[in-house]
Amino acid sequence: MFKLALALSLLSALVSVRGHGYVQEVTSGSTKYTGYLPYQDPYYNPPPQRIIRKIPGNGPVTDLASIDVQCNGWSEGGTPGSAPAPIYATVAAGSSLALNWTAWPDSHIGPMITYMARAPSDITKWNPGTSAVWFKVHELGKTSDGKWAATDLLTASKSIYTFTIPSKLKAGQYLIRHEIIALHAAYTYPGAQVYPSCIQVQVTGSGTSLPTSFVSFPGAYTASTPGIVYDAYTNTGAYPIPGPAVWS
Ligand SMILES: *[C@@H]1O[C@H](CO)[C@@H](O)[C@H](O)[C@H]1NC(C)=O
Ligand SMILES: [Cu+2]
């Protein structure tokens, strides 16, 4: 067992050196939830229970028409997209969630964006498929002085990205879809690299609001969406963050 653990930690160290990444930990108040660890979890029996849906590894999705762009793909038992995870976090509307990313390569500049989707039924069984159910709750692109969400701001905050669950959001179960879109090869399509993570939560509180317009994944991003094909090295002006406006 010790040898296995050692081999696994060496393997994950090697993999993190090679680049890319994923959300490895979610913190709500004083509660920490370990993320789905693609280089460790599959080797345990029984597998650890996580609030983040399975991902195949630390690599990106570049085919924006694929269901994989939703939760970083992991088709299982014929289910398109990521299989539901067995548990969820409980978070209060109006509170913030801190998402801890694995070491992010400096070259992979781009925006960090977060969507939510309300589960019509048990979040541990629900899969949104291609339905338009997603609304944007937070986004960071490039600041006016040229700092990118990834990697400048993320590095400055010790690899922690923080956003707030909208305070007026109706209580219930939601899937949070958080992503970095890396733009280092986005001068053409396909090129932009999407690194999504899907986190299952139960939102508590007395809010009563829901948005009225929604997007789908796949669907929200195409080759002609502003900010998807983008030369991040020659464009020195403002960056158009892909997708709809943040719900307010
Ligand atoms: C992020 O998670 C890693 C792995 O659990 C941990 O070692 C690191 O301290 C965390 N970062 C912060 C700022 O909490
Ligand atoms: Cu990469």
From TrEMBL:
- PANTHER family reported for this sequence: ENDOGLUCANASE IV, PUTATIVE (AFU_ORTHOLOGUE AFUA_1G12560)-RELATED
Kindly list the cofactors needed.
Cu(2+)
Q: What is this protein called?
A: lytic cellulose monooxygenase (C4-dehydrogenating)
- Organism's domain of life? Eukaryota
Signal sequence, start to end: 1-19
Q: Give start and end of each Auxiliary Activity family 9 catalytic domain.
A: 20-236
Q: Which reaction does it catalyse?
A: [(1->4)-beta-D-glucosyl]n+m + reduced acceptor + O2 = 4-dehydro-beta-D-glucosyl-[(1->4)-beta-D-glucosyl]n-1 + [(1->4)-beta-D-glucosyl]m + acceptor + H2O
Species the sequence originates in: Collybia nuda
| Entry-linked InterPro entries | AA9, AA9_LPMO
Q: Which residues cross the membrane?
A: none
Q: Tell whether Nuclease is among the UniProt keywords.
A: no
> In Gene Ontology terms, what is one molecular function of this protein?
metal ion binding
Q: What EC numbers are recorded for this enzyme?
A: 1.14.99.56
Q: Which UniProt keywords apply?
A: Carbohydrate metabolism, Cellulose degradation, Copper, Disulfide bond, Hydrolase, Metal-binding, Monooxygenase, Oxidoreductase, Polysaccharide degradation, Signal
List this protein's GO terms for biological process: cellulose catabolic process
* Family, per entry: Belongs to the polysaccharide monooxygenase AA9 family.
